[in-house]
Give the backbone structure.
Amino acid sequence: MTLFDAGLSGSATAGPGPAQVKLVVAYDGTDFSGFAAQPGQPGVRTVGGVLAHAIGKVLRHEVRLACAGRTDAGVHAWGQVASFLSEPGLDPWRLQAAVTSMLGPEVVIRSAELAPSTFDARHSAQWRTYRYTILNRRAPDPFRDRFTWWVPDPLDLRALRLGADPFVGEHDFASFCRKGPEGSSTTRRVLESRWVDEGDGVLRYEIRGNAFCWQLVRSIVGTLVEVGLGKRRPGDMMAILRAGDRDAAGQLAPPRGLCLWEVGY
């Protein structure tokens, strides 16, 4: 039995025509140069590159992946969504199992399902949620180091929360985005911006928005950490937003603390 034969009882398979396959993917981005495949640079290892290669190996034909968020080098994901056009008869459950056995635990397909022919992982997305985790203790933790930013000096959680509030709403985030192609917009709508105290020195920043420009979340977190350390005031955030100048914001938080958590459709 192959991936294109009838699946197990109750499993869905593609009908007689092509169909979109929707994948929810988790990965440890530490050793990857981001998600987007870079075919012109064969020595560069990316999540999208190894995932497309594995899927192509299983299906015996090349696939072109769309993704909900093109995460940068070193950034992780729990709820990245990818999609591709399949040939008729594909069993997504068998594809999920086969690819995960090849790439796991570094890259794992958490779920695979058939989607409407109009579905696109990027363009169909309504919102995305990112989480950034900080370890605020005097000593680092070797078991958390790949997924957290260690900040040894005490952070003022109240100041962090006050500083996070102004980001909610629609703003031009030019002060917090790395410059993109000429003419590209840096206006985004943020639906949620908040800090969660997980206890034991673990602080988590959550931000949900319709879309995110390049390095936006890491720029926001880096600036908010300066607020938490008393180097800036929470009230400075609105002025930084209005400045429209990347030099007005603070440092860029390291990529290892960032995770694409969930995508809504």
